[in-house]
Write a structure and sequence with these properties.
Elements (H helix, E strand, L loop, with lengths): L6 E5 L4 H16 L3 E7 H10 L2 H5 L5 E6 L14 H21 L12 E4 L4 H10 L6 E2 L3 H15 L41 H12 L6 E3 L3 H12 L5 E3 L3 H11 L17 H7 L6 E5 L8 H14 L2 E5 L12 H9 L5 E4 L4 H6 L3 E6 L3 H10 L3 E3 L5 H12 L3 E3 L6 H14 L1 H19 L4 H14 L4
Parallel strand pairs: 1-2, 1-4, 2-3, 5-6, 6-7, 8-9, 8-11, 9-10, 11-12, 12-13
Helix pairs in contact: 1-9, 4-5, 5-7, 6-8, 6-15, 11-16
The structure holds uridine-5'-diphosphate-xylopyranose (UDX).
The site of uridine-5'-diphosphate-xylopyranose has 25 residues, from α1, α13, α14 and α15.
Length: 476
């Protein structure tokens, strides 16, 4: 019997980090010769086309195409002021019927074959139901950290054991029912640490629905590698045996492009305009003298927290490059005068931009460390470059990841919950000067393992081959 030729539909969460990693995955599929459709929201597609060369980059793959849908919100609504939960449910109202329609349609059969595999973000649990209903395989790509995903998978057990919701206010109590993390995971490291009522908390509810959908899916893709997350991957595989660890994805893609002698430079997937003057500034700084400071694309800080970071960094005497996005300030309109004063007050040893070419920044020889919110992409990008981290985790997976950075991988320190200029100053000095050699050694070791995992015969390459086979499998 003839099987339809494979056609993968990728559908990322409508935010920077998953769009970035899903585009990298899309390109890997293109390199494997698959037909690929990338489903983006109209809003993000406009930003992507405005700030990147993505259109011309993907033109070299004739079997690739973008499709767009509304995110369900009025066009004029500023997305930065919309709650994440609201965005996810408004998008679901549009995406669920769209997926059903596209999977039922057999296409025109002339320009492209019908979709034979869906790769949605792990949070789009409903895509698994739609695929199962129609008989099209669904392999979610979970773009958060695997250590957090494992905690999600344990939440039903934690609820059953009475560990969640918390009884009492002590955030240093250790969890007993998260296998593999006994003696490690405290309440303050829990993704929903402010949780009062798990039955009504929208984020926790989405996570629980995702947990239910994982065993119903045809596999799971994770942006990690066996040498980093091996023990956790074994545990995750007890829920989903076909779990493909194919990361670090950005390095995986670069390695494949290099092997095929294809261009790999200027491959930004940014929704903001990258300020390349940051690289010129770095070019003028001594080797490993600068700490890079960035809190990703969504995390916010209060004005008081921004000032504590500013004073801590300035008082440390270490040079720094800081990304201060226009939506970084929590609960207040962006104040240009405030930003100007911050930049003016530290210009001798620091440089502030509103968005940087992060991969290029982390790869720069002047960078010696990274003060990060512990978003999963930032963490992987830092691991690849062997840069030790100071973690200021804000929410969800960042809270678990930062614990792993400091206590499991030992490639940095975790500030967790105390934003104080004296602590920041001390941590910056420790990371960049006092304990530099120790952190650098463990970060470089992990960086080498990351490189091996995507090299020929590496574990992520084997993961990639089985993942491609999974995506090529015909419907049941
Ligand atoms: C979100 C969540 O906040 C995070 O917890 C989860 O792990 C992934 O989704 P985000 O805040 O976007 O992530 O952070 P992160 O995962 O670190 O991704 C940010 C991406 O933007 C990175 O790929 C980084 O290279 C890029 N970036 C960031 C830039 O290109 N320039 C910048 O100035 C800042």
């Amino acid at each position: 019997m003839d099987h339809p030729s494979p056609h993968v539909l990728l559908f990322p969460l409508p935010i920077q980090s998953p769009i970035n990693s899903m585009l990298q995955l899309a390109e890997l599929f293109c390199l494997a010769g698959l037909q690929v459709t990338f489903l983006n929201t109209n809003h993000n597609q406009k930003l992507l086309l405005q700030h990147t060369n993505v259109e011309s980059r993907f033109r070299q793959y004739p079997r690739f195409r973008f499709r767009t849908i509304s995110d369900g919100l009025p066009v004029e609504n500023p997305r930065s002021s919309v709650q994440f939960g609201e965005l996810i449910s408004s998008l679901q109202a549009v995406a669920e019927p769209f997926l059903r329609e596209i999977l039922l349609s057999s296409s025109d059969g002339v320009t492209e074959p019908p979709v034979t595999c869906v790769i949605p973000d792990g949070l789009f649990y409903y895509a698994v139901d739609v695929g199962n209903e129609i008989g099209v395989p669904v392999i979610p790509f979970d773009t958060i950290s695997p250590c957090c995903l494992w905690v999600y998978l344990c939440i039903p057990k934690l609820i059953q054991a009475g560990e969640v919701p918390f009884k009492g206010n002590d955030l240093d109590v250790l969890f007993e029912n998260v296998a593999g993390m006994q003696g490690l995971l405290r309440r303050r490291d829990f993704p929903f640490y402010r949780l009062i009522d798990y039955a009504t908390d929208p984020y926790c509810q989405i996570a629980l629905k995702e947990v239910e959908s994982i065993p119903q899916s045809n596999g799971l893709i994770l942006n990690t590698f066996e040498d980093l997350d091996g023990p956790l991957l074994s545990l995750i595989r007890s829920h989903c045996p076909q779990t493909y660890a194919i990361g670090p994805l950005h390095l995986h893609l670069k390695t494949k492009l290099a092997e095929k002698r294809m261009p790999i430079s200027a491959s930004s997937n940014s929704l903001w305009e990258e300020d390349h003057s940051s690289i010129q500034w770095l070019d003028a700084q001594p080797i490993e003298s600068v700490i890079y400071v960035s809190f990703g694309s969504m995390a916010t800080l209060s004005k008081e927290e921004i000032l504590e970071f500013w004073h801590g960094l300035v008082n440390s005497g270490i040079r720094f490059l800081w990304v201060i996005r226009s939506n970084l300030l929590r609960g207040e309109e962006w104040n240009h005068q405030f930003a100007k004063e911050l930049a003016e007050g530290c210009k001798e040893r620091a440089y502030i931009v509103s968005w940087a070419p992060q991969e290029e920044v982390l790869a720069h020889s002047a960078i010696g460390g990274f003060l990060t919110h512990s978003g999963w992409n930032s963490t992987m990008e830092s691991i690849v470059q062997g840069k030790p981290m100071i973690c200021w985790a804000v929410y969800v997976d960042q809270r678990v990841t930062s614990r792993f950075v400091s206590e499991v991988w030992k490639i940095g320190v975790d500030m967790k919950d105390i934003c104080d200029r004296y602590i920041i100053e001390k941590m910056v000095k420790d990371l960049m000067v006092t304990n530099r050699d120790e952190f650098k050694k463990s970060a470089e070791k992990l960086s080498n393992l990351a490189k091996e995992s995507v090299g020929e015969g590496g574990s992520s390459r084997i993961g990639e081959i089985t993942m491609e086979q999974g995506a090529r499998q015909p419907p049941h």
